[in-house]
Specification:
This is Urease accessory protein UreG. The protein is an alpha/beta fold. It is about 35% helix and about 20% strand. The relative contact order is 0.19. Bound molecules: guanosine-5'-diphosphate and magnesium ion (MG).
């Protein structure tokens, strides 16, 4: 049995980059499997196969062909098949399942994953946390990515933190940037506490 972590969030928020960084941090100690979802291609899986030092077979690209939300929430069969393949072939310890990009309304079925992260980024604007949406409100960990870009897009991190805190209630969140590894360690530690 593996720990299955879903990763959802809008297109371009940094889901694939986060999987890349976390895999590099964890792959020496844990067997990692990755499932990506794209609507029309296997672009994300191809990217990860190129960049990660991981056997190609441990990365499976699912081409959902329709609404990406459906494939992680309603009819999860394509994703479940991929996860089971990784568990059976490689006895993976951790499987990351990246959702196709969404519009703030995606949620994972807990029949597919054990916990899920929801990734937004500061460059989409400081108002995203106030716009709510199930992933933002209810995901197991909210990640606000690309804090390094805040000065360039006129976003005040402190005020964004207040909005996030208010909307997340007691659920956890982290502000991160892949330019600052210490911030990604917070995500890694959160995952390690669950393994
Ligand atoms: N400046 C900056 N760029 C980032 C960061 N994280 C991801 N990116 C870039 O954002 C773009 C989209 O990232 P990607 O991981 O493909 O997003 P996805 O569509 O959610 O999977 C890529 O060009 C990444 O290099 C970050 O923390 N800071
Ligand atoms: Mg991606």
């Amino acid at each position: 049995m593996s720990l299955k972590i879903g990763i959802a969030g809008p297109v371009g928020s940094g889901k694939t980059s986060l999987i890349e960084a976390l895999t590099n941090m964890l792959k020496n100690e844990y067997k990692i499997g990755i499932v990506t979802n794209d609507i029309y291609t296997t672009e994300d899986a191809n990217y990860l196969k190129r960049t990660l030092d991981l056997p190609d077979e441990q990365i499976i690209g699912v081409e959902t062909g329709g609404c990406p939300h459906t494939a992680i929430r309603d009819d999860i069969s394509m994703n479940q098949k991929a996860v089971i393949e990784l568990e059976e072939k490689f006895d993976s310890d951790i499987v990351f399942v990246e959702s196709g990009g969404d519009n703030l309304s995606a949620t994972f079925s807990y029949e597919l994953i054990d916990y899920y992260l929801y990734v937004i980024d500061v460059a989409q604007g400081a108002d995203i946390p106030r716009k709510k949406g199930a992933g933002l409100l209810f995901s197991d960990l909210l990640i606000v990515n690309k804090t390094d870009l805040a000065p360039y897009v006129g976003v005040e991190i402190e005020s964004m933190k207040n909005d996030v805190k208010e909307n997340r209630k007691n659920k956890p969140y982290v502000f991160v940037s892949n330019k600052d590894e210490s911030t990604l360690n917070e995500v890694k530690d959160w995952i390690l506490a669950l393994v």
